[in-house]
Specification:
Strand order of the largest sheet: 5-4-3-6-7-9-8-10
Number of helices: 10
Helix content: 40-55%
Strand content: 15-25%
Length: about 260
């Protein structure tokens, strides 16, 4: 019910590129968010999703985050997981466009899940260095196996809770960080602040499910108002954060 109300409110305030006056954001909206190109990679993403949906594999789940709103069992069927909690077609295609547009070289993903988002990010830039963290060992191993079958070799898989694993990261900074796990206000803010030392001027953060709950929306508002943040773009599905010091502080809601 909260998400429905939030979406109605979002639509009442959202605009398209005509409501954007910043050249940087205008180009981002028109050339990335609204890019209608039928990339060949979309077919690969569709096939990957199809394989997940058809999988009868059952995984013993260790859930360190907020879990699924639909699946509660510790043993979960991969096909059902793909249907309810894996990145959607729209999400994965958007991640692909983001990575293709900005040409990210160093990527961090919090929440591997079944590897749908990881696959999209890898396809966009096969030479990039991607680190993905997953709390559930069995889910991580399954994603590793799937991506290996699709000849993905530029991903490092780490297993553990985000808080501890973030502390072990050797990278001085990342071009892109995707927050896609532990949909909880306090945790999201904690990870955001823990990773601020890893940013540079062109770094992009993306937060998934910013309207998952009232708490997640409150976390998104906190992030928007943080001194380090200059520009945010809310597309409802995701929240995109920029740290470009040359940009005036502005917040946009964009309909996809």
């Amino acid at each position: 019910m909260y998400q429905i109300k939030a979406y109605i409110k979002f639509l009442s305030k959202a605009s398209n590129q005509h409501g954007v006056h910043s050249p940087f954001v205008y180009n981002f909206v028109t050339k990335c968010l609204y890019n209608k190109t039928k990339f060949d990679a979309y077919k690969k993403l569709k096939q990957y999703k199809k394989e997940l949906l058809q999988s009868n594999t059952v995984l013993q789940i260790t859930d360190l985050g907020e879990g699924s709103k639909v699946l509660d069992a510790n043993q979960r069927n991969v096909g059902k997981m793909a249907k309810t909690s894996s990145s959607s077609k729209k999400d994965s295609e958007l991640l692909y466009r983001l990575s293709d547009y900005f040409k990210f070289k160093t990527v961090l993903e919090l929440g591997t899940s079944l590897g749908m988002g990881t696959y999209a990010l890898s396809l966009a830039n096969p030479t990039s260095k991607i680190i993905t963290i997953e709390g559930c060992p069995n889910t991580s191993r399954f994603a590793q196996s799937q991506l290996k079958n699709h000849h993905i070799g530029n991903v490092e898989f780490l297993i553990g809770n985000f808080s501890n694993t973030i502390l072990t990261l050797q990278n001085n900074n990342f071009d892109f960080i995707f927050f896609d796990g532990h949909h909880n206000k306090e945790a999201t803010i904690q990870y955001f602040e823990a990773l601020l030392p890893k940013i540079h001027n062109e770094t992009v953060f993306v937060f998934d499910d910013i309207y998952w709950s009232e708490g997640m929306t409150e976390a998104w508002e906190y992030i928007k108002n943080h001194n380090a943040v200059t520009v945010t773009v809310d597309v409802f599905l995701l929240g995109v954060v920029f740290f470009r010091k040359e940009q005036a502080k502005e917040h946009f809601k964009i309909r996809l």
